[in-house]
Amino acid sequence: MSLLEHAAVALALQIVVGLVTRNWWAGALLACGYFIGRELAQAEYRWIEQFGAGLRANAPWWAALDPKVWTKADQIADVVGPIAANSLLWAVMRRRASAA
After folding, report:
1. Neighbouring residues of 13: CB distance < 8 A, sequence distance ≥ 6
2. If pLDDT is split at 50, 70 and 90, which confidence band does 1 have?
């Protein structure tokens, strides 16, 4: 998935949760949590392949946070994009609710 697709899916999830619960912050947290978890899992797998001899048992708890496995801008953008999109929608909906 591209950055725009990640952001679109995250926004769709936030909109569903926001419309159902009227809690736009919860929708943002759920959507961002999903994509952050997904990217951290992929980074952990990259660490295991590169430094852990292919064995999960060799991975330390911080393996997914090792900067050596975050080598491409799109890996970081796949985390930052949904956070930025969801934060923007949350801010818009918060302002809209306070104006009403």
Report:
1. 27, 30, 31, 34
2. confident
Name which of 46, 42, 35 is nearest 79 in CA terms: 35
Q: Is the pLDDT of residue 100 over 80?
A: no
**Cα 27 off chain centre by:** 12
What is the identity of the amino acid at 85?
A
Q: Which residues contact 93 (CB under 8 A, 6 or more apart)?
A: 18, 24
Q: Where are the alpha helices (DSSP H) in the chain?
A: 3-21, 24-51, 73-99
The DSSP 8-state label assigned to residue 52 in this structure reads S
Domain that holds residue 26: 3-99
Residue 91 is encoded by which pair of tokens? 């801010």
- For residue 15, give every residue at least 6 positions away whose Cβ sits within 8 Å of its Cβ, in sequence order, or none: 27, 89
Number of domains in the chain: 1
- Residue-wise pLDDT for 22-67, tens only, equals 999 999 999 999 999 999 999 999 999 999 999 999 999 999 999 9
